[in-house]
From TrEMBL:
Protein's name according to its UniProt entry: F-box LRR-repeat 20
Gene3D superfamilies hit by this protein: Ribonuclease Inhibitor
Taxonomic lineage from the root: Eukaryota, Metazoa, Cnidaria, Anthozoa, Octocorallia
Protein's UniProt keywords contain Transcription: no
Organism: Paramuricea clavata (Red gorgonian)
SUPFAM superfamilies, alphabetized: F-box domain (SSF81383), RNI-like (SSF52047)
Source taxon at top rank: Eukaryota
PROSITE patterns, A to Z: FBOX (PS50181)
PANTHER family: LD23158P, ZINC FINGER PROTEIN
Keywords: Ubl conjugation pathway
Keyword Aminoacyl-tRNA synthetase: no
Amino acid sequence: MLEKHRSINNRDYLAKKELMFSNHNSLTQSNHTRSSSRSRFELQVNRNPDDDSIGLINRKLPGELVLRVFSFLDVVSLCRCAQVSKLWNVLALDGSNWQRVDLFEFQRDISETVIQNLSRRCGGFLKRLGLKGCKSVGDGALRTFSGECRNIEELILEGCKKISDSTCFNLSNYCRNLRVLDLSSCPQITDNGCIALRLVQ
């Protein structure tokens, strides 16, 4: 009877000991996990692009001055500057830097999506756009362009074979400041489109 009682007590003791050890391991693992998570979080914070982008030039020069410098850059240089940091991305892609855009050199890479995004980004700032030879650009892109860039004054569409009279109608409805329009080598433009353009004053 005494041995049985001792056996029960031993089992209880071992069970309690195992429970305590298990709780200790769980607590240790939990603390280790929190510590590891904190380390990873701190590492992510240290890798934050904003921290990397806050260089001397950004601290010394006001954004207005950097924006003024960007206004003298060409399209390629602006795109490169936009990849430097978040701040430069905002400044480089500001619509005021994109008043005159010529995409002839990139004609093979220009899709309708590019023109639509450019139109929304530039908006009323865009005065001149050259799309000579951009054969992938069609009426859909020019529809967005007409609605977004109503202050356009010069538009070169030479060789844009996908555009039709629909583009002429949209330009006549929205782009009242248009003064120069090149539609040479655009076989889908008919007399109806040309007549619609006469309404532009």
